[in-house]
Predict the structure.
Amino acid sequence: MDLILEGLKKAFWLLITFDPEVMSITFLSLQVSGSATLISLLIGISIGTTVALSNFPGKRIVVSLINTGMGLPPVVVGLFVTIFLWRNGPLGVLEILYTPTAMIIAQTVIATPIVMGITLAAIQQLPKKLRLQILALGATRLQMVWILIKEAKLPLLAAVMAGFGGVISEVGASIMVGGNIKGYSRVLTTATVMETSRGNFEIAIALGIILLLLAYFINLILTQIQQRERPR
Amino acid sequence: MTILEARNLEVKRGGTTILHVPSLSIQQGEILSLIGPNGAGKTTLLQTLSYLLKPFEGEIFFKGEKVNSNHSIFDYRRKLALVFQEPLLFDTTVFENVASGLKIRGISRPEIRKRVMEHLERFGIGHLSRRSAKTLSGGEAQRTSLARAFAIQPEVFLLDEPFASLDPPSRESLIEDLEQILRQTRMTTLFATHDRLEALRLSDQIAVMNQGRIVQIGSPGEVMNHPVDEFVASFVGVETILTGKVIKKDGGTFVASVSGKEIEAVGEARFGEEVILCIRPENVVLSPPPSKEVTSARNVFPGKVERITSLGLYQKVQLNCGFPLVAYVTKHSMESLSLREEKIMMASFKATAIHVVRRKGR
């Protein structure tokens, strides 16, 4: 019991004193996961919408692949991104393994299928005649796609939350491609793993609390937007 | 002037032809109804005419110019407005919904505001402008959808059964308002419906569709009184449909002149107004001439029997009283009246047996 109590005390102290190391870890976490989420939104929404709106042979296979991708194990992503970025690997010349950039890439690979799958479902859920109605109002194809995305904005906000939630809490890939280098590629999850293994439970608890709060506040903001947009 | 013309339209799906229209033309300012049962091809025709359903064969001309290249299809589509049976509103306010077609066209904000307000008022939904579209009743939603289409100020207005999913009271009030707006603006309109009374009331021309084809096209009187085949006859109904002009009125009843004959009917109508009178054949009584007996029927006309057809349990008698009139009689009365073709009979029907359809502003 003492262990937890001490841990909580220490955690509280680290938080209210804005411990520089904890702050820099938090900031990097936000930066990496935020960037990865943004990139995955760009890729996921555009491909998800395209697949939803087009008809081609084998569409079902593509859709089931995307849905499978929503549950991609981070460790597997970490493994393949590492292989690709390895010195002798296909993208070894970039020399970005064990950098925050590598972490962004790995997290983007994890978040993209999540965003894509939710987008696909959201766009397909809209009535088919709505597309005809938008075109009949004189829209170009691009305008039509834009209006459809706006129509699906509530489920798309869920896609943002799910994507961000998936990568901010992910540890396997980040540790493999980032290397958990102090002051450089250490993020909340990788630091928590390390401190726990060292028995520094108080710091681990502090990091864990920050991670929880972060996830909570980001989702709180998005939920606010989502609920405000909901028709009264 | 012909505003819209289609030639050799053909749409195939899975090897079967679902639409085949060798030619169709719509005059500027005309209201053309497409009537037919579900699956007759009305929706397919409207969507093909607006280039929303591809691929298809055939050609479409707008004001004499052929619509073909990608660019001209897009320009052409912006001259039309299509309203579906479902309101298909966007998840935003009523105002933004009505503004959407104008926004798509890149019209300036003040101009959008002006036009949206004008059309909201026109369809009686001005007070709803800030409401979320999701909270509207069926009638309000369909009014919003119509206002959205009208705000574009299209040159041709296509309506795909816009009243079909409304409850009777909101349906009636919407038809009334739309009728007035169509008359005022003299908007060229193509109107698909399976309700022949709606078609009678609104249209200048009626096209009856069945199995992807237009089986008959003509004025309401022509189509209703001279159906070309059994299908049209059964679909447009069996009533005698007469067009007349109100020449006298006297509290609650009026007299309309139909091909020079005076017919008395119950209902409200203005002097000089054009009305449509529908008379069901079971309400027409035939008696031998000259009829001396006094009946409560206000309308008694001599007519020559032109054709007698057996409909199984009873006979259908077509008379010429100066206007066409159809009556049903049983086999028994046929014999007692010794009815036969060429014979002159007295036909009578009560003023209350006439269903009056008013056509406003014509």
About this structure: The two ends of chain A are 48 Å apart (CA to CA). The interface with chain B takes residues 127, 129-130, 132-133, 135-140, 143, 147, 150-151, 153, 231-232 of chain A (CB under 8 Å). The CA atoms of residues 51 and 59 of chain A lie 8 Å apart. The mean pLDDT of chain A is 91.
